[in-house]
């Protein structure tokens, strides 16, 4: 399947990162994240579903586990810690205050992780603007 033709199915969309939240993995483990919102709604879910149907080998979700789009900020040791961190980041006069932001998504990157150094690298790019793919 060509990533070049895949880009022609989608158009650039607005992504807003504005809501801080967390996922609980047990009593002593939480993932803090920013929940993305898109215009049109469900743009990320549509792209993810289509790409997984074309490239099932790239799906790292467990069977019967729903994909949840998020931008991971880090880990905390439990629910109380996660709530405190979110409260601290939400404080208006904090030097660490999180400020929501938006941008236009024009590309989707296929990334891999180098097992030697843990760094991510972009391998393929699907342009949502030009409907072409580049190989890096």
Plain-language structure description:
The relative contact order is 0.24. The protein has three helices and seven strands, in the order αββαβαββββ. By secondary structure, it is an alpha+beta fold. 21% of the residues lie in helices and 40% in strands. The chain starts with a helix and ends with a strand. The protein has a four-stranded antiparallel beta sheet with strand order 3-2-1-4, covered by helices on one side. Strands 5-6-7 form a three-stranded antiparallel beta sheet.
Main beta sheet: strand number and arrangement? 4 strands, antiparallel
- The main sheet orders its strands as 3-2-1-4
Q: Share of helix among residues? A: 10-25%
Task: Give the C-alpha Rg.
Answer: 17 Å
H and E order = HEEHEHEEEE
- Which stretches are poorly predicted, pLDDT < 50 over at least 5 residues? 131-136
The helix count comes to 3
Task: Kindly state the number of beta strands.
Answer: 7
Average pLDDT for all residues: 84
The general outline is globular
How far is the first residue's CA from the last residue's CA? 17 Å
């Amino acid at each position: 399947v060509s990533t070049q033709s895949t880009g022609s199915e989608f158009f650039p969309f607005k992504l807003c990162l504005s809501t801080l939240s967390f996922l609980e993995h047990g009593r002593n483990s939480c993932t803090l994240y920013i929940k993305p919102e898109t215009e049109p709604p469900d743009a990320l879910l549509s792209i993810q579903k289509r790409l997984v149907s074309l490239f099932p080998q790239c799906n790292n979700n467990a069977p019967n586990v729903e994909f949840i789009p998020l931008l991971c900020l880090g880990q905390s040791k439990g629910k109380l810690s996660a709530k405190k961190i979110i409260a601290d980041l939400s404080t208006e006069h904090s030097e660490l205050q999180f400020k929501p932001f938006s941008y236009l998504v024009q590309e989707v990157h296929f990334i891999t992780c180098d097992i030697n150094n843990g760094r991510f690298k972009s391998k393929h790019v699907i342009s949502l603007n030009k409907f072409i793919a580049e190989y890096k």
